[in-house]
Amino acid sequence: MEPQVKDRPERSRYEILAGDHGTETAGFAEYFLSEGEIAFIHTETDPRFAGRGLGGLLARGALDDARARGLRVLPYCPFIRGWVGKHPEYADVVPETYRARFGL
After folding, report:
1. CB atoms < 10 A from the CB of 68, how many?
2. Which of 14, 25, 64, 89 sits most deeply, having the most CB atoms within 10 A of its CB?
3. C-beta of residue 90 within 8 angstroms of C-beta of residue 102
4. Strand partners of residue 37
5. pLDDT tens column, 12-43
6. Measuring CA to CA, how many Å separate 55 from each of 35, 42, 84, 98?
7. ∠ CA(73), CA(46), CA(89), 5° rounding?
8. DSSP label at residue 12
9. Which residue, 17, 18, 19, 44, is CA-closest to 29?
10. How far apart, in whole angstroms, are the C-alpha atoms of residue 29 and residue 73?
11. pLDDT for 19
12. How far is residue 104's CA from residue 82's CA, in Å, rounded to a whole number?
């Protein structure tokens, strides 16, 4: 089963589900949601799933969902910030006035 990114608003995080049956939480990106903004504060992947590109899939899925919802992204998390820096097609989700602050 292909990995899937799911928003878990009750836990304030996106999770990437993987494993044989696609039911294991392989990683997560915690966020704080407020007034049209989503601040990513911490991202973590389970070491058992290392080297599979799941962190990038998680970042892409979370940012795609934020974009679809019209949310402004504040990438306080170094992983999310770094991922956006490597994928300039996602820079538009970060408000222009904040890009320099985040080095984007």
Report:
1. 8
2. 14
3. no
4. 34, 72
5. 999 999 987 778 999 999 999 999 999 999 99
6. 26, 12, 12, 23
7. 30
8. T
9. 44
10. 13
11. 81
12. 9
